[in-house]
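[step 3/7] fold_predict: job queued, chain A
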Amino acid sequence: MQENATLRSARISTLDFPEQKRLAMWREVYGRGITQVDIEPIGDAPFHADVTLSMLPNVSIVAGSRSPAHYSVTPELAGRGRDIIAVSMLRHGVASATQFGKELIKGVGSASVLTPDDPSTSTLLTDGSFITLALTRPAIMARVPDMSSAFGRPIASENAALRLLMRYLDVLLAGNELENPSIAHSASAHIIDLAALALGARGDSADIARQGGARAARMSAMRSDIMGRLGSSDLSTEMIARRHGISPRYLRKLFEQDGTSFSAFVLAERLAKAHAMLVDRRYAHLNIAQIVHESGFGDISYFNRVFRRRYRATPSDFREAARREWRD
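[step 4/7] structure written:
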């Protein structure tokens, strides 16, 4: 893909194909049309697969689930694919991957690193799920010049950069932010930085990756975690830092580098949540005190004060205006 490429995405499932032709069509559309692999199911159960493809600048993301099968890059197919490096992360199930005569998967949470230039076989031995990144070779080699050292060995599940990469991808794939071209470009750069760290980038390249992708991915993951816990009365720097394996001091530093603070971010998001609930018909059955509690505020007087400062009107004003609209 070119540097100025915009996001394209698609979901492909065997359920989209006629039942009697699912395997044949999956082999043709996915196996030969997209990934340049031969596919051979394992066992007698009906074959099924469901994947989502997201194509960003220099990065393609393939995520989904499959039934047991071998996915083989044969000598005939080797070299036909794009000029990429594939990093495939096992999320669930039992799998193996071999290239250069070496086993490249070490259980759930680990990743294999494959080059399409040489034969390989990736096998799901049970139903499973995965995320595979296709990284353009020039982009990843700009961060990891000695890519040859990454081939023939797995990336262990204990690899901190790999774990952070998985969390970042989960956040990205759960929303629709990648539809924004500028966000897609930034996310692509962050993915490459994190992949480079997981692959063993060193020296100046590693420093650049840590300052870019690792920091952005950690902030993205923490913000997502905070957003899911706004209603918790025990939400704190200590809780979030512990959940993300960093110190509270470092967490505060990350927010400061982002031009804010942990407490300011939490307050702004709690106010935004309360505002959204006040004007949403789905929460019409809740009174203002209940919405205050659901938004994570413990003191209604404090809530009223900061809400009015933020929105230049009282919560009651917004609720009454919303009720008039609901009646119209």
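[step 5/7] annotate
The first strand starts at residue 8 and ends at 13.
Residues 203-227 form the longest helix (25 residues).
exit 0
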